[in-house]
Amino acid sequence: MIPVQGFDGQVVGVLGLGRSGLTAARALVAGGAEVRVWDDGEAARDAAATEGFTIWDPSRADAFDGMACLVTSPGIAHLYPAPHRAIAAAMAAGVPVDNDVGLFFRSLGQMGWEDMETPPRVIAVTGSNGKSTTAALLAHVLTQAGVPCQLAGNIGRGVLDITPPVDGEVIVLELSSYQTDLARALTPDVAIFTNLSPDHLDRHGGMGGYFAAKRRLFAEGGPDRAVIGVDEMEGQYLANQLAEGPNDARLIRVSVARKLSGPGWDVGVRKGWLSETRKGRQVSSIDLRGVVGLPGVHNHQNAACAYGALRALSLPPKVIEAGFHSFQGLPHRSQRVGEKDGVIFVNDSKATNADAAAKALVAFPGIRWICGGLEKEGGLAALQAAMGNVIKAYVIGREAQGFALQLGDLAHEVCGTMDVAVARAIADAEPGETVLLAPAAASFDQYDNFEQRGQDFIDQVARLIA
User: Fold this and answer.
1) What is the pLDDT of residues 389-412, one digit of tens each?
2) Is 284 helix (H, G, I), strand (E, B) or coil?
3) Which of 99, 124, 95, 121 shows the shortest CA–CA distance to 108?
4) What angle do CA 331, 176, 450 make, to 5 degrees?
5) FRET pair for 420, CA 20 to 30 Å: which of 70, 212, 293, 324?
6) How far, in Å, CA of 273 to CA of 465, rounded?
7) Are residues 136 and 48 in the same domain?
8) What is the C-alpha separation between 172 and 189, in angstroms, rounded?
């Protein structure tokens, strides 16, 4: 655990008692704070009380008297579409509002690093798609290279739940827009921006607010090195703002859509080949086509982002390449879960928006596509250009009929449930084809989360091809 610094003897409120909230409360206590907690759910409050925390009612008129800070869980709205009543009351009372990520960066550098030969470093990854894979890939390559490493944030453990880092350790954080939007301290050594596509727009008041939340990691944090995907205009804008000039080596540009040129430090992927270029000259390359755990252009972008960050830490290209080849990928993200009679089965349940699904649809040939669920804002417009590999769609979800109407002339079948969709896709599939779950929608209409949806797909496949 990382004891939170700066609140010794002060009153701090914690709003939301899920994983990050409880961890923040414990870390605050470890740092000497007097902690008061609240959750709108009675069961969560009871569990916290059992653990010994003081339950505090933020609706009281004097609730924020003498409070030094309110720490809120990332999932609780603080601005759009409307702030939680406790957060609104804290802001009205002039009480600073922060989250566990802000506390982490506030506290991490105050842990006796002056005696270390190589102080620990932090790589923070944000963006719309590919964050989890990029972060996990970074941690895997570092571990394989013998570099002490911990993975936390929006993946794995909460940021304050990690072990205090040792000499030379690297901490890899996946950070969502919910986490970067509110954190009062953001100071990574290396920051990665993968890409941007519409998501969580209600929470950020539109696309501009969403991009602004991501941008804070770079504008507020001032990382020593920034790895920026420049295949969208927002990435180009961000790279332009960060660079002092064309040859500023603090910026590493990444592209899988076009050939980068100029005197700067670039990492590009073309036709499956990753190339690192500095001062206009290629200095290394990796053939990604045989890397089983990173299929498709979208994963090549993840690999290029991870490569840039690892090179910023001075890892040799050959070491990075070896780590790429031993990476098995993440569950529910282009995860190969079976094969029978020449048909491959791939679980990409994490493709919860149209842009993520589009990336999966161009990664495999001859696709029997299982899609549908709780539709997100923007519909399926981003998918239209990516359907060339799709032979037929099998639509699930409570609103499957409405989802299917957006598929236009694409051959499709309304199946409703996963078991029906998998059975129909298997019955239709021929050798050389891929049965792909890439829903392009959230899972909450039929499942608790995308992991549960992906596991249902895996279970159905296992049952029917056994």
Assistant:
1) 999 999 999 999 999 999 989 999
2) strand
3) 121
4) 35
5) 293
6) 35
7) no
8) 10
In a domain, 5, yes or no: no
Where does residue 38 fall: left (phi above 0), alpha (psi -120 to 50 degrees), or beta otherwise? beta
Instruction: Indicate the pLDDT class of residue 375, thresholds 50, 70 and 90.
Output: confident
**Helices and strands (H, E) in the chain, number of each type:** 15, 20
Do 221 and 72 belong together in one domain? no
Residue type, 248: D
pLDDT in tens, 95-135: 999 999 999 999 997 667 778 899 999 999 999 988 999 99
Q: Does the pLDDT value for residue 292 go beyond 90?
A: no
Q: What is the CATH number of the domain that holds 88?
A: 3.40.50.720
CB-based contact 356:129 (threshold 8 Å): yes
Q: Residue 233 contacts by C-beta under 8 Å, 6 or more apart in sequence?
A: none
Q: In total, how many domains does the chain have?
A: 3
Residue 314 lies in a domain: yes
Amino acid at 364: F
237 neighbors 212 (Cβ within 8 angstroms): no
Please check whether residues 180 and 306 belong to one and the same domain: yes
Q: Which helix (H) or strand (E) holds 396?
A: strand 390-396
Concatenate the DSSP letters of all residues of 424-455 into one string.
HHHHH--TT-EEEE--SSBSTTTSSSHHHHHH
Instruction: Based on the fold, state whether residues 386 and 304 are members of the same structural domain.
Output: no
Residues 445 and 372 in one domain: yes
Full residue range of the structural domain in which residue 381 is found = 335-465
The pLDDT tens digits for 164-211 are: 999 999 999 999 999 999 999 999 999 999 999 888 889 999 999 999
205 torsion bin: left (phi>0), alpha (psi -120 to 50), beta (else): left
> Residues 283, 415: one domain?
no
